[in-house]
Amino acid sequence: NTRSRSAKEVAKDLRERIRPLVGAEYVVFDDLNNGARKPIQIDFTGPDSRKLLEITSAYMDKLREVPGAVDVGLSQQDPKKELKIELDRGLANSMGISAGDAAQALRVAFAGIEVGDWVDPTGETRDVAVRLHPDDRMSKENIERLPIAVAGTNQMVPLDQIATLTMGKGPSGIEHSNGKRTITVSANAQGRSNGEVTDDAVKLAKSFDYPPGYGMDLGGAGQDQQELFTQMVIALVSGIGLMYLILVMQFGSFTAPLAVMLSLPLSLIGVVLALLITGS
Question: Of the candidates 36, 30, 34, which has an alpha carbon nearest to the alpha carbon of residue 9?
Fold first, then answer.
């Protein structure tokens, strides 16, 4: 049985039907031959994942404005909330607190520390660990008041006196490609060919002003197609060169085969006409 609609037409209809759903996360694939990946993929690389997240977020906003680019998303899940703690090492050292002391206090608060064991009513021995209550671990104000012991004394100093705490968002995971941290922005094409949308996506990515150590590269199907075209050009040039050498050996001259070689471009006329007639 033949289908009355193509896969791209079905995908377009699905997007229109799903779009009104508030809070829904979805991805539509109209070509499973691509390994269930979106055809347009731009890889962004750099040393810091958070800076990469800023660059890719700005790029995604611009890419959504490109005609034909739909289902724009990241290779990883949405950023997660995180607590960033910046220790004032100079102030902490002057008070006799090392970075290790602060890290140990935070480790106890979040991961916990074993303080002993307990024998339950059944007679089984269980380890006892102490750490902050889950509600306290989620509160920035409570963590700011976390006491840090001053070495060699009985004094305690609140964490916010020697460190700055800020709430922000960080990457949900860290991906690497060729030894570099990578975040991939991907998209589908609708209403235009994959190649046209990919060309616009690459031009847009190249127009960004990247800090030192950061950059972009074409990935996914676009990279595979680029490599395929390069190999085809190499094979074509090699074939023409080999043909010329065979003619040189047959004619016993380097100039006589040139007349035959110059007729090769004329054969393209028939090839193009044949493709137009057959609709290929």
Answer: 30
Q: Which amino acid belongs to residue 91?
A: L
Q: Distance (Å, rounded) from C-alpha 17 to C-alpha 26?
A: 12
Closest by CA position to 218, among listed 33, 42, 24, 90: 42
Q: Give the domains, in start order, of the chain with CATH numbers.
A: 7-78+173-226 (3.30.70.1440), 81-170 (3.30.2090.10)
Of all helices (H) and strands (E), which one includes residue 87?
strand 80-87
Q: Residue 70 contacts by C-beta under 8 Å, 6 or more apart in sequence?
A: 15, 187, 188, 189, 190
Please list the residues that pair with 113 across neighbouring strands. Answer: 130
Give me the residues paired with residue 86 across strands: 164
pLDDT of residue 238: 92
Whether the pTM exceeds 0.85: the reply is no
Q: What is the pLDDT of residues 220-229, one digit of tens each?
A: 766 777 788 8
Could you tell me if 187 and 40 are in contact, meaning their C-beta atoms sit under 8 angstroms apart? yes
Angle between helices 194-206 and 220-251 (to 10 degrees): 110
59's tokens: 């790029």
Nearest-angstrom CA–CA distance, 203 and 224: 18
Helices (H), the chain: 7-18, 49-63, 89-94, 99-110, 134-137, 140-144, 194-206, 220-251, 258-262, 264-278
